[in-house]
Design goal:
38% helix, alpha+beta, 76 residues, 3 helices
């Protein structure tokens, strides 16, 4: 699954946007290794100034439900 994102980033042009997760990454990454690896991949790219990371809240959380975010990266 990670290789799909690696290839997309390699072929992308400046300004292209990738949605890499929808949910609550802080929690989801602990229960799914693919989610963790993809999140770490985009974080490393951001540290190398290859992408900018953004998140958009889609749904507020409550005592019984996690919030839902859209996580995106923009190639720079």
């Amino acid at each position: 699954m990670l290789s799909k994102y690696e290839k997309q980033v390699q072929l992308a042009k400046k300004g292209d946007i990738f949605e890499y997760h929808k949910g609550y990454l802080a929690r989801d990454r602990h229960f799914n290794n693919d989610v963790r690896d993809i999140g770490n991949f985009f974080y490393r790219l951001a540290e190398m100034d290859k992408v900018e990371l953004y998140q958009k809240r889609l749904k507020h959380g409550s005592a019984n439900h996690d919030p839902v975010f859209q996580y995106v990266a923009r190639k720079i």
